[in-house]
Q: What sequence folds into this?
């Protein structure tokens, strides 16, 4: 998955751990543009589990070169209105990404074929 972040366009970014907090802030600001692609299939919880929104980037960790890791979390919920019950939880996940000089972030998502 690729996304262009305006704040990163034409920015001479010196890659390293000193960019972790900056990238975390930028990614949290643009979370609505990336969250749907980062939410995994929730059927391992239930076919009725849904993502209600509210993803948060917990931290960004520099790996090497222009490669970073993003640790993030997001809620899930199931509403059993007929039984007047609601189940909910929080999933913690990680994804690696690269940052280009053109402001493009490329998330390296693991895609499993069924």
A:
């Amino acid at each position: 998955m690729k996304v262009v972040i305006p704040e990163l366009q034409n920015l001479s970014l010196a890659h390293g751990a000193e960019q972790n907090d900056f990238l975390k802030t930028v990614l949290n600001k643009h979370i609505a543009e990336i969250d749907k692609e980062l939410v995994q299939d929730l059927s391992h919880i239930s076919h009725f589990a849904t993502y209600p929104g509210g993803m948060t980037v917990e931290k960004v960790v520099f790996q090497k070169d222009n490669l970073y890791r993003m640790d993030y979390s997001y809620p899930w919920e199931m509403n059993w209105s007929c039984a007047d019950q609601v189940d909910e939880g929080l999933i913690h996940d990680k994804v690696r990404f690269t940052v280009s000089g053109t402001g493009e972030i490329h998330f390296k998502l693991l895609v499993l074929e069924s």
Residues 20-29 form the longest helix (10 residues).
